[in-house]
Amino acid sequence: MALTTVARLLNSDMIPAVQGLVEEKLAHAREIVRKKAVLAVHRFYIKHPSSISHLSEALRRCLCDQDPGVMAACLNIFYDMSAANAWSNKDLTSTFVNILKQVIEGRLPRDFEYHKVPAPWVQLKLLRILAVLGADDQAASECMYEVLRDCLRRADFQTSAAYAIMYECMSTITRIYPSAQLVEFAARSVGRFLRSDNHNLKYLGITALIAIVKVNPVYAAEHQMTVIDCLDDPDDTLKRKTLALLITMANPANVEVIVLKLVGYLRSSVDLYLRKDLVPRIIELAERLAPSTVWYVETMNDLFAIAGDVIPVDVAHNLMRLIAEGSEDPDADATLRETTVSNFIEMLEQPYISDMLAQTMCWVIGEYAYLAKDFDQSTILELVSELLN
Questions:
Q1: Which positions ≥6 away from 24 have C-beta within 8 Å?
Q2: For 60-77, how does the pLDDT look when each residue is reduced to its tens digit (9 = 90+)?
Q3: How many CB atoms lie within 10 A of CB 220?
Q4: Residue 246 near residue 229, CB atoms below 8 Å
Q5: 138-159 per-position pLDDT tens digit
């Protein structure tokens, strides 16, 4: 009871008064006392990290305690210490790997199982520790590859605990020094989340795929259509996460499809915050990955028409400069200008035109209306006058 009270109520000023008594209990004969002492020491660390700097060896002995409960209690403090300074526990990488291997092989007592999943909370904490220790460290990461693959493969149950382990495995795989085979395995596994009818699992799948795409964008290709379908989901949170993934996975081969979906979603959205966030992202994709100048101009025209009130002024100026300066191909430039001015003339009859779009249209029509062979000049002048009025 005293150790439980210390772990819950202690503040930094009280640590010196009880620290010696608590440290003695780390070697107590009863496992429940050792476990409570570890939890109390964790409290010391949270309140005053330097107060337990001399307990490194004692905590390492507790990590290898014969009682799984004591070992599990130690994982919390080792995670916090590793997150603060990963190098302080690099030499324990193989120890954590061995513990995780024993857990997934079912060597812990059955009391630690949850819905047939071996000690899921222990697995989750170990995976988070390995993610910290393996970040930017090839040697440490290579020690983990086999156990991570085995852990991901064994978490093959239709339970929340198993899905949590799968997600944490994929997260760890993307945070450590990458293994192409392991990342590919994680990319295949994420399909289980994306194909689920559960919104929460889909959200986790999208989040995991974002992390995978950052390691290697090629692995997003097989899930592209499934991800795009998530935009039709009624869950707004999932839609927003999907938008972030689509932007991340865009490349020259799929940019037209992705931008078309993003523009379509923008057209139906009335959320001003989302529109302000999404428009610059679409513009950035169009500028960076445009397959042709004509496509870029048409995409910008759509954006001006849909969300002209949130488009920065410099974007309109860039568009006008692009049309005016053209490229090194005179024929292509003439086609671009003719197509653009014709589109703008047709848009003049729309019931609502934003100020930004109106300014752009007026400049383009004023400069290149003579190229629009299918329109009478007097009609064009009349439509522009109605717009300005």
A1: none
A2: 999 999 999 999 999 999
A3: 22
A4: no
A5: 999 999 999 999 999 998 778 8
